[in-house]
User: Fold this.
Amino acid sequence: MKTLKEAYSRYFRIGAAVNPRSLERFGDLVGSQFSSLTCENEMKFASIEPKPGEYTFGGADIVYDFAKRNDIPMRGHTLLWHAQTPMWVYEGGRDAALARIKSHMLAMAGRYPDIWSWDVVNETIADDKTGALRRSPAYEAIGPDYLRVVYRMAAEIFPNAQLVLNDYNELSPEKRAGMIRAAKDINAEGNIVSTIGMQGHWNIWVDPDDVRRCISEIAEAGFRVQVTELDLSCFKWDEREPEDRDTPEYRAQLAKAYGSIFAVFREFADVIDAVTFWGVDDGSSWLNGFPAGRRPNWPLLFDREGKPKEAYYAVTEF
Ligand code: G3I
Assistant:
């Protein structure tokens, strides 16, 4: 059996979002399968500095030390976000907010100096289909130019990291246009953000042509691509009732969907640097709690015991 990182060694890194619990349970699997790791929550601002000056690096250290021991490079997620970032960060106006963001970045750079890629500001585009910037707390506190300022700061503090503009719903043309516009605006005075991060929270009926169109538009606009948070829900967005979808029929659809989108990813191996799954096994996926409360879901390549599913073979055998 070929591992994911063996199958994709000539294409791009294959990553996973992990946390201390998933590493404790599936450390061997993670160590053998993946060539990039992301902290699912542990490097977010609220995990690192919940109160001013009170640093809690514990969770991030566990993941970082695991990655080091196993010689797996890490992505950073995320320096600034409208969620999981404490509101005190933004108090007292533009200069105060920027000073706190800078000291947070310096703390991260000091403790985790070799992160290969950073999601600098996460989810910057509004949900209203206009592609406009989200009126986030950072936008309100710092002003409409906040992305330029924060990304420039990140470029100075993390000179060796690939900087990413990461967002969801990238298959929507309006949202995608907004992401590309925002990234170009950040780069108005120099090459700062090289990469658009497509989160890839899709479902098992995802259309590979939509994925192809999305990646080729981003590449034509001059950006590199990472798929940063891939998972395929077994439910459509509006389906909220629990139902056992760990059946042969749904497993086959999952495999078909994963097989077809990875075929598209391979077509774009020259612009994609990494494809990261948002979780290791079905049991640890955030989709068991979203958007329908505690409803089981089966969106990943490994089952709740860490066994590879049909989808795993659809991705690794080509
Ligand atoms: O740590 C507390 C724990 O102490 C408490 O007992 C428990 C009770 O609910 O909550 C725990 O915190 C949860 C945290 O995950 C850690 O498990 C939060 O409630 C929960 O909201 C949080 O969810 C995370 C979510 O981001 C927050 O927005 C998910 O795990 C994480 O997978 C998800 O990841 C995001 C990416 O960062 C950005 N893109 C979307 C993606 C999916 O939402």
